[in-house]
Amino acid sequence: MLTCLRRSAQKVNSFGRRTISSRRLVYENFGDPAKAILLQQYDLPKKLENKSVHVKWLGTPINPADINQIQGVYPIKPPMPAVGGSEGYGQIEAIGTEVRSLKVGDHVIPAKSGLGTWCSDAYLSELDVFKIDASLPSTSKATLQVNPPTAYRMLTDFVVLKEGDTIIQNGANSAVGQAVVQICRARGIKSVNIVRKRETPDAQKKLEEHMKSLGADLVITEEQLIKEYRGKFNPSLALNCVGGRSALLLAMALDHNGVMVTYGGMSKQPLSIPTGPLIFKDIKLCGFWMSRWYENKDNVKERVMMYEQLGEWIKTGKFHPPQLVARKLEEHQLALEKAQTDHSCKQFFVPND
Amino acid sequence: MLTCLRRSAQKVNSFGRRTISSRRLVYENFGDPAKAILLQQYDLPKKLENKSVHVKWLGTPINPADINQIQGVYPIKPPMPAVGGSEGYGQIEAIGTEVRSLKVGDHVIPAKSGLGTWCSDAYLSELDVFKIDASLPSTSKATLQVNPPTAYRMLTDFVVLKEGDTIIQNGANSAVGQAVVQICRARGIKSVNIVRKRETPDAQKKLEEHMKSLGADLVITEEQLIKEYRGKFNPSLALNCVGGRSALLLAMALDHNGVMVTYGGMSKQPLSIPTGPLIFKDIKLCGFWMSRWYENKDNVKERVMMYEQLGEWIKTGKFHPPQLVARKLEEHQLALEKAQTDHSCKQFFVPND
C-alpha cells in the first residue's frame, strides 16, 4: 500500500506549509453518471483542523445507490458540486492535534453515508470515519460498510432467529442477497432463495451452483415457489428487494407473526401485499435502511461488535466479498458504464493507484 | 326486557326436570346466507352444568364477518351444523352451582368470536361470556363487542397519539370507521377521512355532513387527497380497510415512523405499498384482528377498562351506536338479504321478541 502514497502531489505554499493536491470524481448536476462525473484536481486546505484526519482512500466501490444519487433519483440529494461514492476504506495519513481515537496508519471506513469516497485524499472530521481491522483483505475492507451490514442487521434486528430456522428472500443474488446467504450459513439458518428465471437452463444452473457454493439451501424461481413449494416452509423472516408481485409471494409464504423487511425495490413496482396474512396471520412489514442505522449514535457499540463478527467470518473463510474489478480514477467513464450494465462483478476505484 | 323472557317454551321431561326449548338460526353448508340459514327449534340439555350459565340473547347483529363465515370465505370455519352470529348481548337467566363471576340478571356479551349468537337461549361456559354494564342502551350493548373495540384498539395499541395529533383512514364510513371518528373526537385527535366518491354531489354532501356530525375533521375522496391535500398533514397512524391503490395513498401520506394498520380489504385487491416510504421514512405495516386480541388472556383487565371508557362515552353522548333495524328470528331471510344490500343501517336480531 505504501507505494500508493507517493502519488499525492505536495507543493510548498506561500506561507511555507506544504499544500496537498488531490484528485476527486465530482458532479455538478444530476444526470447520466458516465457523463456527469468529472475527474478534478484540487488542493486540500492548508491546515488540517485539530479534530480532523487526513484520509487516503485506497478502495472505494461503485454501489447502485451511488448511481441513483448521481442520477438524482435517490432521496438524499447532496449539495453541489458533490464528490461521488459513499463506501470504501482508507488509511489515516495524518491526524490533527486533538484527535484521540485514531492514529496514523489506522484503516478506516466512512462512519456515515454520503462522504464522497471517490477521491485520493480528504480531510475529514475524526467522527466521520470508523476504525476497522487493518488485517482484513483489501476487497473485504472496501465493501464492509454497506451490503454485509445490511444483511447482518436484517437477520438480527427484526426476528429472533435460532439455528435451524428458515428465512426466505427474493433478489437473492443481489450483493445483499449473497451476504444474507453467507451469514445464514455461518449462523446455521436455512435460506430459501428466490431468483429470476434465467434465459437458459445452463445459466440457471450456473447461478444455482454459485448460490449453493455460498451456502444457499434452496435456490428457486417464483414459479417454482408457487407450483412446487407452496406451504413447504414457514419462514419467520422474509427479505424483499424486488417489490411488486414478488413481495406478495413472500408475504404469502410467511409464517404466523412473520416479518417482511424491504430494503430495495428492483422491479420499480409498489409491493403487492395480500390482506389476509396481515389480519389473520399477524404478519408485519417494515423497511431497512443501513444509512439510518449508522446515523443512530446508540448503535456505535453494536457496530464494533458487528464488524468483529463479520471480520471473524471473513478471516475463517465463511464470508467472501463480491468479485471486484479495480479501476483507476481516470477510468471513471468505463467504470460507471460497467457498473450499470455488468452485474457479474462490482466496479471499484483504487484512488491512489 | 323482562317481557321477552316469557317466550321460551318450557316443558317437563320424563325425569321431572323442565326442558327449555329454544330457537336458533343454523346452517349446515356454506353458501348464500339468505338460503343457507334455517330457523330451528331445539331443546337445551336437561341439566345446566355446574360451571355454565343460561343466556337469553336479547340483541344480536349481523356483521359482514358473519356473512363471510356462512359463505365459507372467512378464515375461521366452524364445525357444522353451526349457529350464525358472533356478536350481541344477552341476559343471564340461570347459573350453575359453581359459577362465581356472574349472577342472574347480569348482562353479557360473548367473550370470544364464533359463539353463535343468533339464538334465543344457550347454555354456555361461564368463561364464554363477559359481563358488561347493564345500564347502557340496548343498541349500544348489542354492538359493543366488535366495531367500537376494533377502533379503540387501533387508536391505542400501535402509535402513541396525543391530543391534537392527526390520523388518516380509508373506508371512513364503515362501521369501524365511524367508531374511529367518534373516538378521535372524544380524545381530541384529528381525523382525515377518505370516502369513495358518491354518485351525486348531494349524496356526497349528505355523507360528509353525517361524518362531520360524528366528529370528522375532514371528509375527502382519494382524488381530493391527491390533488388538494398532498403533504398537507403528516399522520402517524393510517387505518386501512380497503387495500389496493387506496392503501398506497395512505402509505404515501404517512409521516416518518408512521404505522398503517389493516383491518379489512373491501376492494378485494392486495394492498399496493410504495417501497420508498418503507425504506426511507421507516413506516411500518401490520394487521389487526379483534378476535385475536380477545383470545389473549392477558388482555382481560384492559378489556374491562376499555368497556368502561366506551361506556362512559356512550352515556355522555360522545359515542353513538350505528342505526339498527330490529328483526325477529323468523325474518332471517329478509334480514340477511338486507345486510348484504342496504349499508345505510345494520340488521340485528331480537331473538326473544
Q: Count all strands of chain A and give the number.
A: 18
The CATH architecture category of the largest domain in chain A equals Alpha-Beta Complex
Count of helical regions of chain A: 13
Give the CATH class of the largest domain in chain A.
Alpha Beta
CATH-wise, what's the superfamily of the largest domain in chain A? Medium-chain alcohol dehydrogenases, catalytic domain
Shape of chain A: globular
Instruction: Report helical residue fraction of chain A.
Output: 25-40%
Protein name (chains A, B): Enoyl-[acyl-carrier-protein] reductase, mitochondrial
Organism (chains A, B): Mesorhabditis belari
Domain Enoyl reductase (ER) (chains A, B): 31-349
InterPro entries (chains A, B): ADH-like_C, ADH-like_N, ER, GroES-like_sf, Mito_Enoyl-ACP_Reductase, NAD(P)-bd_dom_sf
Task: Please give a structural write-up.
The structure is a homodimer of 353-residue chains. Chain A has helices at 2-5, 33-36, 64-71, 138-142, 147-154, 175-187, 201-214, 222-227, 244-253, 275-280, 290-295, 300-315, 332-341; strands spanning 9-12, 18-27, 38-43, 52-61, 82-83, 89-95, 107-110, 121-125, 129-132, 166-169, 190-194, 218-220, 237-240, 259-262, 271-273, 284-287, 324-327, 346-349. In chain A, 31% of the residues lie in helices and 25% in strands. In chain A, the strands form three sheets. In chain A, strands 4, 6, 7, 8, 9, 17 and 18 form a seven-stranded mixed beta sheet that branches. Chain A has a six-stranded parallel beta sheet with strand order 12-11-10-13-14-16, sandwiched between helices. In chain A, strands 1, 2, 3 and 5 form a four-stranded antiparallel beta sheet that branches. At the A-B interface, strand 15, helix 10 and strand 16 of A face strand 15, helix 10 and strand 16 of B. Strand 15 (271-273) of chain A pairs antiparallel with strand 15 of chain B. Chains A, B: InterPro entries: ADH-like_C, ADH-like_N, ER, GroES-like_sf, Mito_Enoyl-ACP_Reductase, NAD(P)-bd_dom_sf. Chains A, B: Its EC number is 1.3.1.104. Chains A, B: It comes from Mesorhabditis belari. Chains A, B: This is Enoyl-[acyl-carrier-protein] reductase, mitochondrial.
